[in-house]
Amino acid sequence: MKRRQFLQFATSTLATIGFSHLNIIRQGERYGKVLAQNTPRKLALLVGINEYPKSDRFRNLQGCLTDVELQRQLLIHRFGFKNTDIHTLTNDQATRQGILTTFDEHLIQQAKPGDVVVFHFSGHGSRIFDPNPINPQEKLNSTFVPADDHPLSQQGIVNDILGHTLFLLMYALKQKTENITVVLDSCHSGGGTRGNVRVRNVRGGEDFKISSDELAEQQKWLAKLQLSPQKFIEERNLGVAAGVAIASTQPSQLAADYEFPGFSAGAFTYLLTQYLWQQPSDVESAIALVNRKLNSLPVSNQNPLYEVKPNSGNGKKPVYFIQRQVPPAEAVVTEVNGNEVTLWLGGIEPDSFDAFGEGAAFTSVSENQRGLTKVQLQSRQGLTGRAIVEGTVQPGQVLQEFARAIPKDWQMRIGIDSSLGTDALTAQTTLQTINRIEPVLAQSGTSPYPKDVHYIFSRMTPAYRQQLQQDGVTDIPPDGSIGLFSQALELVPDSFDVAGESVEDAIARLRSKIRGLLAARIIKLTLNAQSSKLDLAVTMKLEQGNKLIAQAFTVRGCKSGTCQGSSSRGTSQPLTPTLLLEEPFAFEVTNRESQPLYLGILSIDPAGKMNVLFPNEFQRESNEELDQATQIAANQTLLIPNPEKDDFVLVTDSRGKGEMLILASPKPLTKALLRLRNLRGSQRGPFELTEPVEVIGDLLDDLSRSARAILRSQLVNPAEMAALSITFEVQ
């Protein structure tokens, strides 16, 4: 009888390479084959508001100006917009009248048939009383909130711009062109902050009324467009006026103003623009992939949506209605001063940002040549890098990753919540005794913490309990217990205990969990499915039959026509990222390189526990034989577990999101394997990792290009490593 290996899975802690990524890549390749023709003019209006009037209704945001720059750099360097055709309104420029006037003058009046038009808004949203509702049963209408307050705000009159007005503006644009994209990174529910995440919503409700100026604006456009009130209602009921409207979240959900490493941005806007630096895409596929990436962030159920003109097929058309062949890139040169250059780093995966500091390097690329010039980072501030170039580059030159620099002393930051009161300093002192942990005390103001934190050490309070109940959480720890939250105040499973526990006892109890979470964060710095040059594909499927669960592969390493997995996949069956409880599953790992690769597979649960799935057998003989245990030959497929020789199966005994990490390199993983052998001995089968930080450190040493101990970082080349992540749902 086979010995069963049980693995726990729940909420994800690693970024995912989505199960339908293959389909997205194929579509991107199809679009990429069409070179940009002599395209019509491309116009954009980008609005971002961080600073709002000082009143009880408003809280300032921090990431909206970053969103504007994310879109501006993307539109110029990936979609061919001219800088002079992009108009930006930020903070006090983005008044109600400023937005409406610029929309009319820059977009509507200048657009010609066939032109491409983009409107992006990042800021607060709301829902207020609608005197002329489309649906008589729905008294509130969604709005986006400009930077200026109404003089009669104390009487409940607001300057908000209604969704009805935006529809009319798009309807006016439709008279010129159908190639319209509206992106709204705001929300209409919630508000305030959740942990260290700000919510892009302000108070609304029936007590808030639209201004007479807003009513006049609607009447003006109804008259210009010769739309009667009844005709307007009919058109609005059909859906979006033209093109595509993209919202960062569902009407009842929150839009996160998120703290990334070193900068704030809209979680949705950053993930969307980062993906578009890597791959051309249609609207439907892009939103689906961003949705999965949002689920890997602690942003409390933020699911984007899009609406297209009925019967237009616009969801299947390229994002921004532009087909353009451009190589994937992590960065672009924005300024050149001798051998010193300034870079925009908009194409880097969020989990990898801390690996792109001093010592990381890029190479320039073009459509016809690769590896032209090496550019080495000297420093990074937010999304801007300062670098030294060896050779010649020009502004606008796109760059791909050559090597990332993973700091050997990288620290995980844990926020100390204000709920700890006078115990906060004790928590800070005690957490500092854990190697590579940086405790961060809470502060007053818009942001609870002065920098991004990975987790929050906190007491459970009645307010937090109420918030969790509103999120649908049922198993809530008792008030007064101590444990860990995500940065968006989501429970870290199994981290809270009994009420009344002291801070010192709680940290002692959580020490091993914190070490596991630290190891998982370090692993995130290696994930490189988009940039790896190795040709590796991984399929997760049921042990019996050909039903697929999930798939991941290296995008740039993938050779044309070879990204379909092995013939045993059952190509007639659709990919589905679901698995039944205790249903045995297996991995197929295919090495399409002309050289052998050395492989490791780990599972990580949200509580920080890490399991080694492969290698799962360690010999006591020479290091050469030890390395052979992890080798997958050139152009070969490895099945794990192998039913012909393995006496274990892989199953799950917990519902939720499961996650796997697959590492491969042409270099032997000797140092890490020696430690694993010492931990495991001669036993066979998967096992829990009891020294995760040390093993991951050894693994990075094996993969690193920097052998000298004096270097502060471990340099990892995407040509020498593939690090993939797979997530799936256990039902």
Give the SSE map.
Blueprint: E1 3-7, H1 21-32, E2 42-48, H2 64-77, E3 86-90, H3 96-108, E4 116-122, E5 125-129, E6 140-144, E7 157-158, E8 161-162, H4 163-174, E9 179-185, E10 193-194, E11 197-199, E12 205-210, H5 212-224, H6 229-238, E13 244-247, E14 256-260, E15 263-266, H7 267-278, H8 283-295, E16 305-308, E17 331-337, E18 340-344, E19 361-365, E20 370-381, E21 384-390, E22 398-407, E23 412-416, H9 424-431, E24 437-441, E25 455-459, H10 462-470, E26 482-486, H11 503-524, E27 536-542, E28 548-553, E29 578-579, E30 585-591, E31 597-604, E32 610-614, H12 623-628, E33 631-632, E34 636-640, E35 648-652, E36 656-665, H13 670-680, E37 687-688, H14 692-703, E38 713-716, E39 722-730
Parallel strand pairs: 1-35, 2-3, 2-4, 4-9, 5-12, 7-12, 9-13, 23-24, 23-25, 29-39
Antiparallel strand pairs: 5-6, 6-8, 10-11, 11-14, 13-16, 14-15, 17-18, 17-22, 18-21, 19-20, 19-22, 20-21, 22-38, 25-26, 27-28, 27-30, 30-34, 31-32, 31-33, 31-36, 32-37, 36-39
Note down, in words, how this protein is organized:
By secondary structure, the protein is an alpha+beta fold. The chain folds into four domains: 3-11 and 530-730, no CATH class; 42-178 and 193-240 and 259-297, Rossmann fold (3-Layer(aba) Sandwich), CATH 3.40.50; 331-407, Thrombin, subunit H (Beta Barrel); 412-519, Rossmann fold, CATH 3.40.50. Strands 29, 31, 32, 33, 36, 37 and 39 form a seven-stranded mixed β-sheet that branches. Strands 3-2-4-9-13-16 form a six-stranded mixed β-sheet, sandwiched between helices. Strands 17-18-21-20-19-22 form a six-stranded antiparallel beta barrel. α4 (163-174) packs parallel to α5 (212-224), α11 packs parallel to α14 and α13 packs antiparallel against α14. The radius of gyration is 26 Å and the shape is globular.
